[in-house]
Every structure is written in structure tokens, then in C-alpha cells.
Amino acid sequence: MTVSFLILATLTIAGMAAAMSLRNLIHCVLALTLGFAGLAALYLYLGAQFVGFTQILVYVGAVAILAVFVIMMTQSAGPMTRPAPASSWAIGSLVAGSVFAILAWAIRSSDVSREILPSETEATVHQIGDALMHRFVLPLEIIGLLLTVALIGAVILAMHEKRETR
Amino acid sequence: MSSLTGYLLLSALLFSIGLAGALTRRSAILVLIGIELMLNAANLNFLAFWRYGPNPAALAGIMFTIFSIAVAAAEAAVGLGIILAAYRHFKTTDLDQMNSMKG
Amino acid sequence: MSETIDQIFVILKDWIMGNVSAGMRPIFSALLSVVPVLVVFPLLFAFTTVLERKGLGRIQNRYGPNRTGPYGFFQPLADAVKSLTKEDIVPRAADQVVHFLAPLLLVSAVFLGYAVLPVGRNMVVADLNAGVLFFFAVGSLVELAVFMAGWSSRNKYSLLGAMRAIAQMISYEVPLVLASIVAIMAAGSLSTVSIVRAQAGYTGIWPHWFVLTPWGFAGFVLFMIAATAESNRSPFDLPEGESEIIAGYYIEYSGFKFALFFLGEYLGMFATSAMAITLFLGGWAAPFSFLTWVPSYFWFFAKLLTMIAGFIWIRGTLPRLRMDQLMNFAWRFMLPMTLFNIFIAGVWHFMPAGFSRWFVCAILVAAPCILLSRGLKQEKKLQVRTYRFAE
């Protein structure tokens, strides 16, 4: 538990909490990118350079921009007109809070809370590429197929339906 | 408190935030974002266990995270496409108002 | 002697580091690496603006700026004073915080990219293991900054400009990354320093640059086209098409914030050009074996200035594209061509060295290029435009 970890964790949590609670959807997405950037920094801090940069490239560069596009196209950029009913807020927060309580209790009471020294290995891009091409080649192919299917599916879903009459 | 516990607690908190958002918000886009958040919390767990686990040279945690990011990206693309198609039909992204199944 | 001049900045840094107490060393090391980047490239930007205006003037048969200082070369100074003293106007309806953060995010994202660019031998801020990935990752932050600027201004023209800019940047980011993959494949590394090292050495007097192979040449041209689109330069300057949407996403910015956008745009152009130099043009290496005595950073900046001159020339020559032409070009030509280029690089790698390899790969590059451009041409269905919404 170092100071930099605490700063990054606070940044991430603040960004994510703001993303889930702000009224304006665009503000939500911008706060979300802050949270994603904080997570990427945490990945770097863990020694996973490749994954950290991929996180920024995919989430900040693609997912957030995609969300922004959908928000603009569905004209929901302004503040939400009606707030959620109080009962929904209460139930949702209660469920989430109890999930966190159970998880925290499980972590505290498990074996992992004893001190483990981090290993000094760092995953170089060369090692990752090697693993992807040998041990994990089948998952890689399946992911490629999945991404292609998702690409085509998203295009078909978002395509304008042809209408006979205007 | 060890550093691994710190990461796990952070990840649990992120998961809960995402869950709370997905349960309470009524905009379909924000629900999708909440799900993304939960996936990210899982990724953080994978990486923390990779770093502090007994066999980091196997890179299993890194591989899981890479695949998980790819799946999440595909999920976001398809999910947002569905939201767009639903908006065209219902003229809203409010989940409470999408309440009819007839096309 | 030439060795000393080549390494003079590295030696200077080592000497300063030797005279600093051990506790301050990390801070000084970071400062000494970062501050030169923060000084040299903005100065290059100032120099480029006047060069561009004079070059465009020459192309358009007029003088360009010639009032401030000798031959108008103090024009950037006058511009800087002007933009610093102008009133900073924020629209009343604007989202104050986002409006303020957008230019800062843009400039800092662009500057981050310079961290992995090797400017000379042993002269790189951070030799990251995944350097090229880092470059593209921070490059994608620019899209977010552009959107923030366009959306927070609460102006329909700025929003339109931002949407155009993002659509264009996303469409051309795919070919940009795919075009750079051939160089990464050939070098077998994502680190920019290793990629430059993989292109070292000479056959006779000719260097081993990737651009001197069929796939490398195709990759370089595709990369530069995508880079032009990525930095919103003419002929891909739709996001700021003055005749259509005034100035695009930074209409509502004035004074220093506008200057920051201007700076960010040019620095982005320099950064992608420098990445192209690193990936395909051998980085800081000399173009001929008998010129290796010239310092490495000289070659880097000479190449960079050549690229900038090319940008200015293209801007003065080509007209602006239409939106549908832009998208068709990205998805129907650039994307298949870059994907095919990766295949060609693989063929090159596995064929035995010699004339046959050159012949096969040159044909493999030329054939899809011709076929795909034919496909683009046939799309033209000229007809009388019907205005559907003006009935």
C-alpha cells in the first residue's frame, strides 16, 4: 500500500462513481474515461504495460467514443428529465452495498490477506506475443472470429431499415 | 494489509459501483457502461492475481485480461448497436419506457 | 570527433547528472529529457507556421507574410503576443469545466506521444517495451479532446465539426495502425528504438530502410495518407471546412485556448510524421553510408522538415474531399489495401532473397492498388441532386 497506489485508486473510484451518478450522460462518459485512465495507470503500476496501453486504446479511444456517438444519435445528451424513483435507488444501492460487504468480508478472511511479495517478472511484449501464438493460439482465433461477428452484427443492427414510404 | 488485498478491495468496490449503476440507472447506455465497469473490475482482479500469484511467468492473468478486453469491446459494439435499434423503435433510451414486446 | 558531436546532448546530460546529488537525480533526469521536447517542438511549430504561410503564398502566387522582421520571419512572435493578449471568451451556455479542459487534454495528449520518438542516437525520452502501442493509445485521447471541445461549446457548428472530426479520425485510425504493422512485423518489436535499430546498416551506399521494399513503400504511402487524415490536414480538412461549418470544433475558442488548439494540431502532425520516419524511414539514420558522420539528430529533423514541406505542398495543391468520398476511401481502399499489405510483408519474409522476391511483391502491391482504385471510380453515379427536405 503505497501513496501512488492510493492516489490512483482514489482517482479511479472517483471517476467511476461520478460516471454512475452524474445527471448528464456526456458528463458520465467523460468521468468514465477518467476512471478507465486510472485503471490503465493501475495496470502499468502492476507491471502489465501492454495491457495498460491496450486499456487506453480500447476503452478511451473506442468504447467511450462509441458511447458518445450513441448518446448524440439518441438525443439523450441533456440532463435526464425524470430522476429514478427513490425505491429503485434504495434497492439498487442496498444490493450493491451488500455485495461489496460480502466480497470485502471474503477477501479479509481469506488466505490472500497475508503478506505476499510481488514477483519481479515483467511481461514483455515478446513474451505476450509468444504465448498468444503458441499456448493461446486457439482462443486468439476464436476472439478474432468473435470480433468479426460482432463487427458485422453491430453494423447490421445499427443500419437504417429500408422503408417503402417516407 | 497487503498490497494484494488493496487491489482486491478496490476491484470489489469498482464491481459494486458498476452493479449499483446497472441496477439504479434507467438509461440503457448507462446500464451498459455499468456492465463494462464490472468487467473492468474483474480484469483488475486477474492482473492482481497474475502479479502476486505463484506462477507469473505463465502469463495466464495477462492473457485472460487481453481476451476479456476484446470480448468487452465486442459486447460494447453490439450492445450500443442494439440500443440504437431500440431507440429507432421506441424513440427513447429509457429502459422503463421500453415495455412492449410487439414490434 | 563526429562521435562526440553526435552524442553531445547525451554527454551534456550525463555531465549534469554527475553534478547533482543522488536524491535529486530522478527529477533532474526527467526534467532534462522532457524540457527539450517541450521547447524544441513548439519552436518548430512557430517556424512551420511562417514557412507554411510563405509556401502557400508562393503556390498561390502571392507573397505571404512579409511585414514583421526580415522576410516576415518574426510573424509567429507577433501572433503569440496577439493570442496572449486577446480576450478569452467563453460562451454563456458553454459547459465551463469541459470547455476549459478540452485544449489542455489535447495538447498534453499530443505531447505524451513524443515520449517514445527517438530523435537521435540514444536520444529518446522513454524506450518503452510497447512504444508504438503507447503512441497510438495516447493518440486516441485526441479524439476525446476534440469531442469535448465541440460538445461543450453548445454551438451546432462546433458539434458538427467535432462529429465529423471523430468519424474521420476513427475511420483513419484503423488503416494508420494496420499500415504500421508491417514495420513492426519486420522489426519483430513494438519498441521504437528497436525498430530504428532493425533498419540500421547499409548495402553498398543504400540503407536498409523499410521504405525501400515494396511492402514498406506501400505501407509508408498508406501511413502518410492516414496520418494526413488523422491530423485533419488538407485535403482531409472537412472538420474545419471554413465554407461549410466556419471553423469546426474550435469556433468558440479565442485567445490562448485557440492557440493551444492550433499548437496541438501541428504537434500532432509532427508526431505522426516522426512516427512514419521511425517506422519506415530509418529514424535518425543517414540516407547514405558516406553521410554517417553527420549527427543523427540532424538527419531526424531534416527528414521531419521534408515531411512538413510535403504536407504544405499537398495542402496547396489538392481540393477538399466530400464526406462520402472520405468514408469510401477509408473503408473501400485504405482498409483492404493495408490488410493486403500485411500479407505481402509475410510473402516477402518467407521468399528467398533476390530478384524474384522483388518482382512478386511489386506485382502483389500494384495489382490490388489498381483494382481497388478502379472499384472506387465505378462508384460515381452522377445524377441531379434532389433536395428531399426542401419540399
The tally of beta strands of chain C, per DSSP, is: 2
Low-confidence stretches of chain C: none
Summarize the main sheet of chain C. 2 strands, antiparallel
- Quickly count the helices of chain C: 14
User: What amount of the residues of chain C lies in strands?
Assistant: under 5%
Largest sheet: spatial strand order of chain C: 1-2
Helical content of chain C stands at 55-70%
Distance between the termini of chain A: 62 Å
- What letter string, H or E per element, gives the SSE order of chain C? HHHHHHHHEEHHHHHH
Structural class of chain A: mainly alpha
| Shape, principal axes of CA atoms of chain C | globular
Major beta sheet summary of chain A: none
Order of helices and strands of chain A: HHHHHH
The outline of chain A comes out as globular
The number of helical elements of chain A comes to 6
Overview in brief:
The complex is a heterotrimer of chains A (166), B (103) and C (391). Chain A is mostly helical and 166 residues long.
Description:
The complex is a heterotrimer of chains A (166), B (103) and C (391). By secondary structure, chain A is mostly helical. Chain A has helices at residues 3-21, 25-45, 49-73, 86-109, 125-133, 137-158. The N and C termini of chain A lie far apart (62 Å). Chain B is an all-alpha fold and 103 residues long. The longest helix of chain B is centred in the last third of the chain and has 31 residues, at 60-90. The termini of chain B are far apart. Chain C has helices spanning 2-6, 8-18, 25-59, 75-85, 96-113, 131-152, 156-187, 192-198, 214-230, 242-245, 255-280, 296-317, 323-350, 355-378, and strands at 202-203, 206-207. In chain C, strands 1-2 form a two-stranded antiparallel sheet. In chain C, a hairpin with a 2-residue loop joins strand 1 (202-203) and strand 2. The longest helix of chain C has 35 residues, at 25-59. Chain C is globular and about 60 Å long. At the A-B interface, helix 1, helix 2, helix 3, helix 4 and helix 5 of A face helix 1, helix 2 and helix 3 of B.
What characteristics describe this protein?
heterotrimer, A: 166 residues, mainly alpha, 6 helices, 72% helix, globular, C: 391 residues, two-stranded antiparallel ribbon, 1% strand
Question: Topology, pairings included?
Answer:
The complex is a heterotrimer of chains A (166), B (103) and C (391).
Chain A: H1 3-21, H2 25-45, H3 49-73, H4 86-109, H5 125-133, H6 137-158
Helix pairs in contact in A: 1-2, 2-3
Chain B: H1 3-24, H2 28-52, H3 60-90
Helix pairs in contact in B: 1-2, 2-3
Chain C: H1 2-6, H2 8-18, H3 25-59, H4 75-85, H5 96-113, H6 131-152, H7 156-187, H8 192-198, E1 202-203, E2 206-207, H9 214-230, H10 242-245, H11 255-280, H12 296-317, H13 323-350, H14 355-378
Antiparallel strand pairs in C: 1-2
Helix pairs in contact in C: 3-12, 4-11, 5-6, 5-11, 6-7, 7-8, 7-9, 7-13, 9-11, 9-13, 11-12, 13-14
